[in-house]
Specification:
Distance between the termini: 83 Å
Helix content: 55-70%
Strand content: under 5%
Radius of gyration: 37 Å
Number of domains: 2
Strand order of the largest sheet: 1-2-3
Structural class: mainly alpha
CATH topology of the largest domain: Four Helix Bundle (Hemerythrin (Met), subunit A)
CATH architecture of the largest domain: Up-down Bundle
Order of helices and strands: EEHHEHHHHHHHHHH
């Protein structure tokens, strides 16, 4: 059972469909290219959309929309109320109103045909013919969308140059504007009689406002840019290192005079575990004590027994250290 919008099938407007068809068999996929397999998988995982028109059901509409674009040459864009003439300085081959209408109708017609195939294979595995038909319409969708985006891309650049938002990097504005342009292409309903540039400019400006708000909020949390010279000093590290050095010296003094009354096994374990007999590493690195297993091999016991001996010895040493600190 497919999941679609609550709009009736004859309604004009945005339609959505959650595909439930599944990928073809391995034999069918082996006959497709890697990019086609990836495109097919993406189509079956993402929600399909189209701006539906009742005329899409007519055969004449199909022949018209799949034919050549009206006008062999791009006509000069006339000044209108959309504001395109104020920002698109170097648009180049800007489509006429009829050409823009043709591109969007073709784009949504192809999307509608793709949705029809997904609806026909709802809950079933695509066969070879279904996969080929679906890929054909998906390629036409991407080709038409790419042409729409290409001719409107200068809108993003021109508006980024004219915006008064100074707190955001120019390249980040363009990136956000491009994403807004792509979303606008997906949602635009050309049957309402508006120019796409009017709709896209509003979407792009909103994206600029969002990124500016996000940047301002971020800088409120992190008001200072990262500067290596402002990193905290090494005072705490030096203090900790000096404390460790002093503790090792005290520990060596206690062991040297055997103030904790350790037996031979306990002293051997402590010296080996904490590398007290190692004055410096031969290669200048940090001095590391031996593992429980390594110490056990030295004194001929298991590592669990070494742990017991170590804990007992540390208890004796702790008592002596506390007495030293109390009297010192």
């Amino acid at each position: 059972m497919t999941s679609i919008t609550t709009e009736p099938q004859t309604a004009v407007g945005l339609r959505k469909l959650q595909p439930t068809a599944t990928m073809p068999t391995a034999a069918v996929l082996n006959g497709l290219g890697e990019l086609d397999v990836r495109l097919l998988r993406q189509r079956l995982q993402e929600t399909a959309e189209c701006v539906y028109e009742a005329q899409f059901a007519d055969e004449g509409t199909r022949l018209t929309l799949l034919g050549p674009m009206p006008g062999s040459k791009a006509a000069a864009s006339a000044c209108d109320d959309s504001g395109i003439h104020t920002v698109a300085f170097n648009v180049g081959a800007t489509p006429t109103g009829d050409q823009e209408l043709f591109l969007f109708r073709r784009f949504n017609y192809c999307r509608n045909r793709s949705m029809e195939i997904l609806r026909a294979y709802a809950g079933r595995r695509l066969n070879a013919q279904g996969a080929r038909d679906l890929l054909r319409w998906e390629h036409l969708i991407r080709e038409t969308r790419g042409e729409i985006v290409r001719v409107n891309m200068p809108l993003v650049i021109a508006m980024a140059k004219r915006t008064r938002i100074t707190a955001v990097d120019h390249t980040e504005l363009i990136s956000e504007g491009n994403l807004a342009l792509l979303r606008a292409v997906e949602k635009f309903d050309c049957s309402r009689g508006f120019k796409f540039s009017t709709y896209a400019c509003r979407a792009i400006l909103k994206s600029f406002s969002r990124v500016a708000t996000r940047t301002t909020r971020y800088r409120g949390y992190f008001p200072v840019e990262f500067d290596p010279t402002l990193e905290r000093g090494d005072h705490l590290e030096n203090k900790r290192g000096n404390a460790e050095s002093d503790s090792l010296q005290d520990l060596r003094a206690i062991l040297g005079e055997n103030l904790a009354r350790l037996n031979q096994a306990e002293e051997t374990v402590i010296r080996a575990r904490f590398a007290l007999d190692e004055r410096e590493h031969p290669f200048g690195g940090p001095i590391k004590g031996k593992t429980l297993e390594q110490v056990g091999e030295i004194i001929g016991v298991t590592k669990e027994r070494v742990r017991q001996i170590q804990n007992k010895a540390l208890g004796k040493l702790r008592v002596v250290l506390e007495q030293t600190l109390a009297t010192g």
